[in-house]
Amino acid sequence: MSLKLTDPSLLKTQAYIDGHWTNADSGQTYAVENPANGTEVAVVSFCGRDETGRAIEAAHCALRDWQALTAKARSAHLEAWHDLMIAHQDDLAKILTAEQGKPLAEAQGEILYGASYIKWFAEEAKRIYGDTMPSPSPDKRFVTIKQGVGVVACITPWNFPNAMLARKIAPALAAGCTVVCKPANQTPLSAFAMVELADRAGIPAGVINIVSGETVAIGAVLTASLLVRKLTFTGSTAVGKRLMSDCAATMKRLSMELGGNAPFIVFDDADIDAAVSGAMVSKFRNAGQTCVCANRFLVQAGVYDQFVAALSAAMAQLKMGSGDDPSVTIGPLIDGKAADNVRALILDATDHGATQVNTGVKAEFAPTYVAPTLLTDVTSKMRVFREEIFGPVAPIIRFDTEAEAIAMANDTEFGLAAYFYSRDIGRVWRVGEGLEFGMVGINTGAMSNEMAPFGGVKESGQGREGSKYGLDDYLEIKSLCMGGLDQ
């Protein structure tokens, strides 16, 4: 993919520490490759422990002055950053597609989605309120104030390299915190471009720091540091558990957005056309590589055949290819290993009795492509029912009763997102309340926005991002007791 940018200076390849672009101390680099064809997009600094330590020190040194700014001043910086993101959205989308692989239209949508969080928390920065409380005695008064937790470590995944970082940095900065960020090694270029615009927005040196490279070493420094008071992570449950364990020694605040296994339930009374439309959005966006992606389709017996036929027909309209082709609607998976994992899940299902429906879409490209796959006759014994697929595979499971659907949907250790379609208002309440998930989409396949809380329950994590609640995880509540007031 030829990366032709209107502003080539957005393509940064070095770490950003204390307001400076810097090479790794060792001079070591690594290549960022386009998953669509394996071509080299850029060569990036490969940092480790020492660079991360300096980034933490920079964030710590910048903390007091950033906290001392008025909420209105911090808000103005975030507003300026948002405006620059919007002004450069086309270039940011091109960079994102080049390193991540999603179609350009999806990448442009992600840039706007990420920018919406910066805008939202620019506004919320001015709404960090405390309280006054009745006093137990006439000589005392009690109030609470909220203050930023301190230096925040942000670790983000490759599937949404712009939005996931914006969703963490924006509330941190709004709360008066400073950050050290570790983007995924597959997709650091979006993070670098974002922080270049943050610098242009006047956000002071040290407030945002970005390092990529030796993942284990960087993570170890972030979790062990006494200066880092909070860690926010989006990624797999397995890695999240290790990070939680590592952070226990210093009692860090934690926000974890982890794995999912989202059920997508279609009841007999559903609008089937609407359900299929929602399924296409939920399942095949980013080639199925989203944490809230529909993972298991539970379809009531009365509409099972109708839904399968309609979904198959819709899937046949998908076009695979490189994300820079405007006609492409589904791109590659992030790398060959990810594609192999998805193929193994399909093989396990068919080996255990599932039927692969021919949708006519072929993946005659690089090894990173997996054709959109529809599986019927799926059972709860198959891996596609139990595991997060993270690919364009739609397994369909038949059910008979509402109670059976709820039990089947909840039969997982995960609890991030769920979806269901029904036109019965009583069922909407019963099922909405009965599903053990942090987010439930009802008659829609797309529910994420900056105004609604994003997060899960059970082993899908803790804490919420976005919405008025998203600032709470970056704030400490301090009680002030003033005595001697009767003299």
UniProtKB/TrEMBL annotation:
Record carries keyword Oxidoreductase: yes
Residues the record marks as active site: 257
One Gene Ontology term from the biological process aspect of the record: gamma-aminobutyric acid catabolic process
Keyword NADP applies: no
SUPFAM superfamilies: ALDH-like (SSF53720)
Family to which the UniProt record says this protein belongs: Belongs to the aldehyde dehydrogenase family.
Name of the molecule in the record: Glutarate-semialdehyde dehydrogenase DavD
Organism: Algimonas arctica
